[in-house]
Amino acid sequence: MDKKSSLLSVRDRKAGILKAAALEYTGSAPRLKAYGKGEVAKAIIEMAQKFNVKIIEKESDDLLEMLSQIKINTEIPPELYLAIARIYSYFYFTKDRKEKKP
């Protein structure tokens, strides 16, 4: 199966902090490829845009905080499968690379 990359980007409205997590799905379970806050998150987003990686932007999300606890290049834990599956299904059903989720 082809690799599928995606990016979850969140701006914490209260703190005003940009956060980003990059995921890669190769067929077994998605892996966390990158995570960052502030300038690191901005660099992750810029790299994703450069390579046409699908991006979802939200105002706040506990999922990003949970992803921040995972080591880079490891599979996400089963308890996050449903949340990640929703992101991949959102990407599947939208044609735009960058879109705000309602």
For the structure shown, list the relevant keywords.
single chain; 102 residues; alpha/beta; name from scop; five-stranded mixed sheet; 3 helices; disordered C terminus
Structural overview:
This protein is α/β, with parallel strands linked by helices and 102 residues long. The chain has a single domain (4-100), classed as secretion proteins EscU (name from scop, 3-Layer(aba) Sandwich). The chain is built from three helices and five strands. The chain has helices at 39-50, 62-67, 81-93; strands at 4-12, 17-25, 31-37, 54-58, 98-100. A five-stranded mixed sheet has the order 3-2-1-4-5, sandwiched between helices. A hairpin with a 5-residue loop joins strand 2 and strand 3 (31-37).
Shape label: globular
Largest sheet: 5 strands, mixed
Rg calculated over all Cα atoms: 12 Å
CATH-wise, what's the superfamily? secretion proteins EscU
- Note the total helix count: 3
Distance between the termini: 30 Å
Give the number of DSSP strands: 5
Unreliable spans = 97-102
Q: Provide the CATH topology.
A: name from scop
Strand order of the largest sheet: 3-2-1-4-5
**Count of discrete structural domains:** 1
CATH C-level class: Alpha Beta
Name the average pLDDT.
80
Structural class of the secondary structure composition?
alpha/beta
What's the order of the H and E elements?
EEEHEHHE
The amount of beta strand, in percent, is 25-35%
Q: Give the % helix.
A: 25-40%
CATH architecture: 3-Layer(aba) Sandwich
